[in-house]
């Protein structure tokens, strides 16, 4: 167990896009700093976010164009203005879908200002950034430039010579698109600088940043286009099998994610270089990392690409032990958390426990079945992370209100018929547990109902857009949160 995870702590789950602000989504500007101040004042020492990558049209941060690149829509334009690289201008109201393009156009203008006005040290810093990140940045910048050129079409629908990465075509594309490529690299330079400044501020306020690594990557990504041999694709670059999960609590037909599966034999032959590079990037951004769908490192659900649902798939073994051993050898102090939800076997539990990784305990799942339910507080372990719910759950208030009277009675019977109202009843239960880390979605702190949930698994409309406003956070909410942190010994400075 890492130093970060061996103390009693409390955390809040809130994605960057959910921060308040004037733009169409939250960003890395002043409101992010205000949120860290709020966490510090409440004694909360962990801020968990969702993945920071560039999503596709549905907005899901779990289907991104790169395992490394940051989402330009999260860039603070005020930061660029304060640097003097961008003239202060009013920004037009645009749709959520078009917001990323507006930001990119402003960054493009800022790049011109950077070239004209940045100090010599700043210019050198940009060159150093491009050199240090070249292991992923070069291919990503070319991919993203081509993606824009071809109107957002997936790389398998590009001209054959680019789809198949013919060397001459790649060289010519780099030359022809050199200006766009340079701007894309600058965009990432800005993102990473803003993030590192925020991370330093969080450190100064005793707040750890907790990130999320989707186990799979999007098919339409720089990773798959540039590292095709690392994935199960045919000679034409098409997927024959796709990732997902079988029918479970969330969906009767399972979830067909559509991601490509890894060619583990190839990855093993390289001592998992692609994975180790991926971890390197995230380790620089975060203090703690969650591996989403951890069970896929032991075995993953393979679905024929021709199937419309996830029902007709099969479990295929993965060399998770060898992978985690390679990661641990290179990053011995890395703080990892295993998202061990869903269909979990003894083999998955053994893999988690062999590396002493904390698993997840979701209190909304605790009250089905009997006293042996693994999510009930009395079954939690110290080396685990307890949640009231996650970004995939309903809000706790929404979940509780949807229960029938018998189910509500069982919940309150277990909790001792407390007079505290939901969702703070469950927040208190999470904080009181023996688990070292207790995480609460911001919606629960604000006592919000179902219409404010972040994501509904199995659906593609209306997700990932929830944002909070400071006026939703009453003094009572903040006071109760701080009281529970101190009552259950979770203030960690």
From TrEMBL:
UniProt family annotation: Belongs to the disproportionating enzyme family.
GO MF term set: 4-alpha-glucanotransferase activity
Enzyme Commission number(s) from the entry: 2.4.1.25
Catalytic activity: Transfers a segment of a (1->4)-alpha-D-glucan to a new position in an acceptor, which may be glucose or a (1->4)-alpha-D-glucan
GO biological process, one term: carbohydrate metabolic process
Name of protein: 4-alpha-glucanotransferase
InterPro entries tied to this protein: GH (IPR017853), Glyco_hydro_77 (IPR003385)
One Pfam family named in its UniProt record: Glyco_hydro_77
Keywords assigned by UniProt, alphabetized: Carbohydrate metabolism, Glycosyltransferase, Transferase
Keyword Transferase: yes
Transmembrane domains' residue ranges: none
